[in-house]
Amino acid sequence: MSGNVELLSAVLAKAKAEDRAALVAYLPAGFPTVDGGIQAVKAVIAGGADVVEVGLPHSDPVLDGPVIQTADDIALRGGVKIADVMRTVREAHEATGAPVLVMTYWNPIDRYGIERFTAELAQAGGAGCILPDLPVQESAVWREHAEKHGLATVFVVAPSSKDERLATITAAGSGFVYAASLMGVTGTRESVGEQAQDLVRRTRATTELPVCVGLGVSNAEQAREVAGFADGVIVGSAFVKRLLDAPDLAAGLVDVQALAAELAAGVRRR
């Protein structure tokens, strides 16, 4: 079975044709449990997410904030394995038809085996992988296997990326480009938004691929703002926080579906 990179492209193109940004939701596999995580992915899609990124929990998630680190820790303590990640992708995709990617650091894939990982992800109906810490210049073997199995390779660009580097990254990627512009403690809310907008503009100058922004978006108003300049709005911590704060899984599922609906309305109001 080939992967679903075509489905991913079609879903992003459909959002563009509807003159809106796509809503991309992130949730870690195995959180709060493997079954609960699968239900959560289905809930965000039911709420209006166009694409889902399933996180492969890692013991040292250097690029993730405290909320996702907490969820990863719960998943790892629960014994989550790569097989559970594949099962999450398969069940979510089969139940909803939505494109589902895996977001993972490189080390787990390297240990598992590139061919094995790409073959299993394609068999599960996965659309591809987001690889935040794999340098493009070391990605040839991965890309060869991903392409063979019909999987997208999504690379991450940052405001610090120079134009020449952006061109190298986007030429190697497929599916979409993940533009990371974190709303952390540095600078004000407005200037970070401007920084993200500038990154999208510079990235678009190098590629035809859609550019999706992960910007610490947590509500419909921020989603609307980012949708004004990006092809997709990526939301992770806000969904994870709803599950962490909920008194039980049932309440958490209601909350994440409601948040997805709110954000889906936001990306349509640009």
- What is the element string, with H for helices and E for strands? HEHEHHEHHEHEEHEHEHEHH
**Annotation, overall tally of beta strands:** 9
Biggest sheet character: 9 strands, parallel
Number of helices: 12
Q: Helical content, roughly?
A: 40-55%
Whole-number average pLDDT? 93
β-strand amount? 5-15%
Q: SS-based structural class?
A: alpha/beta
Rg, Cα atoms, Å:
17 Å
Tell me which oligomeric state these chains represent.
Answer: single chain
Extract low-pLDDT stretches.
183-189
Strand order of the largest sheet: 5-4-3-2-1-9-8-7-6
* Alpha carbon gap, first and last residue: 37 Å
What best-fitting shape do the alpha-carbon axes yield? globular
Can you walk me through this structure?
- Helix content is 53%, strand content 13%.
- The chain has 270 residues and is of the alpha/beta class.
- The chain has a nine-stranded parallel beta sheet with strand order 5-4-3-2-1-9-8-7-6.
- Helix 2 (34-47) links the parallel strand 1 (22-28) and strand 2.
- Helix 10 runs parallel beside helix 12 (249-267) and helix 11 runs antiparallel to helix 12 (249-267).
- The longest helix has 19 residues, at 249-267.
- It is globular.
- Mean pLDDT is 93; it is low at 183-189.
